[in-house]
Amino acid sequence: VLMLCFSVLGIQVKCFHEIITIGYRVYHSYDLPWFRTLSWYFLLCVNYFFYGETVADYFATFVQREEQLQFLIRYHRFISFALYLAGFCMFVLSLVKKHCRLQFYMFAWTHVTLLIIVTQSHLVIQSLFEGMIWFLLPISSVICNDITAYLFGFFFGRTPLIKLSPKKTWEGFIGGFFSTVVFGFIAAYVLSKYQYFVCPVEYRSDVNSFVTECEPSELFQLQNYSLPPFLKAVLRQERVSLYPFQIHSIALSTFASLIGPFGGFFASGFKRAFKIKDFANTIPGHGGIMDRFDCQYLMATFVHVYIASFIRGPNPSKVLQQLLVLQPEHQLNIYKTLKIHLIEKGILQPALKV
Amino acid sequence: MESESEAKVDGETASDSESRTESAPLPVSADDTPEVLNRALSNLSSRWKNWWVRGILTLAMIAFFFIIIYLGPMVLMIIVMCVQIKCFHEIITIGYNVYHSYDLPWFRTLSWYFLLCVNYFFYGETVTDYFFTLVQREEPLRILSKYHRFISFTLYLIGFCMFVLSLVKKHYRLQFYMFGWTHVTLLIVVTQSHLVIHNLFEGMIWFIVPISCVICNDIMAYMFGFFFGRTPLIKLSPKKTWEGFIGGFFATVVFGLLLSYVMSGYRCFVCPVEYNNDTNSFTVDCEPSDLFRLQEYNIPGVIQSVIGWKTVRMYPFQIHSIALSTFASLIGPFGGFFASGFKRAFKIKDFANTIPGHGGIMDRFDCQYLMATFVNVYIASFIRGPNPSKLIQQFLTLRPDQQLHIFNTLQSHLIDKGMLTSTTEDE
């Protein structure tokens, strides 16, 4: 799991580097050495801010033990903001009269790049912590869609899809859509069996490592579904046992097939606008890292939003952590409210009046 | 490499077109002073006339500020929203002017659409937190708030797809520029205004004191610079001077101390704004927290000899106000320099002509925007604890076994602290 986090981080850094380099080339701003430093500095600040927020949530027990970490966490926002401000002031002080406009462009370029890349990678890591399946399945769906759309287009392609990317065709698009849904369905079935993929990643302080062990939630337990009549006739089965997660996987695959390509078009338009063929030459035959990941980035946000809206409840340890910080009167109030609620729901036996 | 030479060719085109636009500076904004003022001041020399115009408008704006404070939090929120829209409009218009992209009507629509989406997202998050009880009652609101992130994201996606579909071969680069411009503007303007509203909900004093400090710093620095100014501060803004900067700093700190002393006395400024669902309106009624209760402080020896007092009674909030004023005086001007550099870079004199003598709304608020973020960060780091009603809300959505677990932990915690007497079974 740690390896995955590092890989995501590495990819993020490389993507950032590629896009910034394009910016430099477009604006011929090689001779503003300050700006290179500043861009990387801002990348560091934003990453620090985001990872600090995540670390505070998930490593709550670990953090509470170490004194310095606790200090860093409590004033985390303030420290991140101070760091950002320092970068901002350096930018203002570095404004040279001749290159004003260029510098502002690069400033904006850096910020938009950060917005796109760092937030996406951060959301990917958050989805990862929900369970590795939430990380693996979306990414493989996008990759599958890429490949199958290419294959379908190669063999059957006839009607072009959009002026922007002449190589894409409607046949590729639709064929890719169906095969990705099927692929997602099957992959979800296979992966849902393993606790390793399905459980939220937790950090166990006793073992000092990441643990993915849990009681699989309802999503990942086989359930019987009665098939709607027309499918019944086709498959000649009354019921089928599925993981509920597979239904979600259909949604994820649909998104990957329909909206993922838009990310690709966006990147193609970007390349067309700035007259570059590929983002960089890191992977032979495929161009740079960014080329591979352009479709992914909307996917990461979608998965995160999906989880937040439909799946995840709030994190219990975070709620507890916040409870313990409140003032005693508030705690008592909440305690009383909770007690009433739990008794109503029958979870608690009514106790004697406190 | 082929791509590099292509880039170079296009790069030259880019810098060529830029130098062309640089050589033809954008039209300087005309002087818009209303007729009335013009006639009244016609007999003064031009320098003093300008001074008077600025002065009168400043007083008018300050009076307006007082009026809206008086009208209460709801009006304040609406005003912040309007200011945000106007700032956004001004910056986007500059973008259009710079890039001559009037003939891309799609893009105007898209920019406003994105503004709407981002606002919807932010206000939805705030509304869910603060209007929790109201939202739970109304069925449609509940659905909206539960799927809020999903709905906002879908709306944004639609805008994104429209952008991709609207890419026209000839204008690619321009369209990407405008896309980037819109997003950076949204980032700056909308997040700031959202944080301002957050601060407001903490208590109107957290809204009023920072903004007044920035305004005071602006005015004081100008005054000090006007009367004593000699050493220029930065090449970017030749009118700013070190004397103005330092004088403004001290004046603002003193002003902040006095203002917070006055305001801490009144409940309506000090209490968090809450929505009372019985009366269906905002109330600012509460028991003032520790911050706003007079406490005795021992004056350190060095000041003791100067002032001749042993102890002084202050609100703890006044100590925070020193931090706020310091930030306003030191970093606020950087926001102003940033805006000046921006104006210099794009060869415009003012953002717009909304306020005579002062330029557009953005001119007045350029120093504010870093301030809003700072206040929010400050509150989050040093003052505010988590919101109890939000916690209850989160708690109720947890699974029953998690709820029980938390309940037990809380119970043992409270018993430890002696707030609860140990009860009987609760397994």
Automatic annotation (TrEMBL), chain A:
InterPro entries: PC_trans, PC_Trfase_euk. GO terms for molecular function: phosphatidate cytidylyltransferase activity. It catalyses: 1-octadecanoyl-2-(9Z,12Z-octadecadienoyl)-sn-glycero-3-phosphate + CTP + H(+) = 1-octadecanoyl-2-(9Z,12Z-octadecadienoyl)-sn-glycero-3-cytidine-5'-diphosphate + diphosphate; a 1,2-diacyl-sn-glycero-3-phosphate + CTP + H(+) = a CDP-1,2-diacyl-sn-glycerol + diphosphate; 1,2-di-(9Z,12Z-octadecadienoyl)-sn-glycero-3-phosphate + CTP + H(+) = 1,2-di-(9Z,12Z-octadecadienoyl)-sn-glycero-3-cytidine-5'-diphosphate + diphosphate; 1-octadecanoyl-2-(4Z,7Z,10Z,13Z,16Z,19Z-docosahexaenoyl)-sn-glycero-3-phosphate + CTP + H(+) = 1-octadecanoyl-2-(4Z,7Z,10Z,13Z,16Z,19Z-docosahexaenoyl)-sn-glycero-3-cytidine-5'-diphosphate + diphosphate. It is found in: Membrane. Pathway: Phospholipid metabolism; CDP-diacylglycerol biosynthesis; CDP-diacylglycerol from sn-glycerol 3-phosphate: step 3/3; Lipid metabolism. Coiled coil: none annotated. GO terms for cellular component: endoplasmic reticulum membrane. Pfam families: CTP_transf_1. It comes from Aotus nancymaae (Ma's night monkey). Keywords: Lipid biosynthesis, Lipid metabolism, Membrane, Nucleotidyltransferase, Phospholipid biosynthesis, Phospholipid metabolism, Transferase, Transmembrane, Transmembrane helix. This is Phosphatidate cytidylyltransferase. One of its GO terms (biological process) is phosphatidylinositol biosynthetic process. The lineage of its organism: Eukaryota, Metazoa, Chordata, Craniata, Vertebrata. Belongs to the CDS family. It is a multi-pass membrane protein. The chain crosses the membrane at residues 71-93, 105-125, 131-157, 169-191, 245-267. Its EC number is 2.7.7.41. The gene is CDS1.
Automatic annotation (TrEMBL), chain B:
It catalyses: 1-octadecanoyl-2-(5Z,8Z,11Z,14Z-eicosatetraenoyl)-sn-glycero-3-phosphate + CTP + H(+) = 1-octadecanoyl-2-(5Z,8Z,11Z,14Z-eicosatetraenoyl)-sn-glycero-3-cytidine-5'-diphosphate + diphosphate; a 1,2-diacyl-sn-glycero-3-phosphate + CTP + H(+) = a CDP-1,2-diacyl-sn-glycerol + diphosphate; 1-octadecanoyl-2-(9Z,12Z-octadecadienoyl)-sn-glycero-3-phosphate + CTP + H(+) = 1-octadecanoyl-2-(9Z,12Z-octadecadienoyl)-sn-glycero-3-cytidine-5'-diphosphate + diphosphate; 1-octadecanoyl-2-(9Z-octadecenoyl)-sn-glycero-3-phosphate + CTP + H(+) = 1-octadecanoyl-2-(9Z-octadecenoyl)-sn-glycero-3-cytidine-5'-diphosphate + diphosphate. It is an enzyme of class 2 (transferase). Keywords: Lipid biosynthesis, Lipid metabolism, Membrane, Nucleotidyltransferase, Phospholipid biosynthesis, Phospholipid metabolism, Transferase, Transmembrane, Transmembrane helix. Residues 1-21 have a biased composition (Basic and acidic residues). It is found in: Membrane. One of its GO terms (molecular function) is phosphatidate cytidylyltransferase activity. InterPro entries: PC_trans (IPR000374), PC_Trfase_euk (IPR016720). It is a multi-pass membrane protein. Its EC number is 2.7.7.41. GO terms for cellular component: endoplasmic reticulum membrane. PANTHER family: PHOSPHATIDATE CYTIDYLYLTRANSFERASE, PHOSPHATIDATE CYTIDYLYLTRANSFERASE 2. Belongs to the CDS family. Catalyzes the conversion of phosphatidic acid (PA) to CDP-diacylglycerol (CDP-DAG), an essential intermediate in the synthesis of phosphatidylglycerol, cardiolipin and phosphatidylinositol. This is Phosphatidate cytidylyltransferase. It comes from Aotus nancymaae. The gene is CDS2.
